[in-house]
Amino acid sequence: LAALERQIFDFLGFQWAPILGNFLQIIVVILGLFGTIQFRPRYIVVYTVWTALWVTWNVFIICFYLEVGGLSKETDLMTFNISMHRSWWREHGPGCVRRVVRPSAPGILEDYSYVSVTGCIIDFQYLEVIHSAIQILLSV
Fold it and tell me: What are residue 118's DSSP bridge partners?
């Protein structure tokens, strides 16, 4: 259920790398449950290997959002450099007040706008870190 919840918020932010990872997590968990119930050793081995990869992926996400080792949360790495979308929590976190400011300079496209976010109780990167930490705890 935690992976499904995370999948929904990653879809809202158009973060394609986490969407792919969450999708694989959901599929492998289903296979792991089936392998455990039916005692299929190969499925259990696949689930065990995937769990190690899943923990590694979540550690990477924690390092990404905390900008450890030269990583920057301002890059388009999570969207495969396809789009400029970011974490959904950036603008919709608890207590955040989102304000759209339209440019007043001539020659700028009408549909272009700047989003100002203020008053967040907790910054979006910490919400992402919490989500990844929960995934790691559930995996262990």
Answer: 97
Q: In the chain, where are the structural domains located? A: 1-68
| DSSP per position, the chain | -HHHHHHHHHHHTT-HHHHHHHHHHHHHHHHHHHHHHHT-HHHHHHHHHHHHHHHHHHHHHHHHHTTGGG--TTSSGGGTTS-----THHHHSTT-EEEEE---STTS-TT--EEEEE--SS-HHHHHHHHHHHHHHHH-
17-32 pLDDT tens trace: 888 888 999 999 999 9
- Prediction pTM value: 0.78
What six digits make up the tokens of 125?
Answer: 């990167």
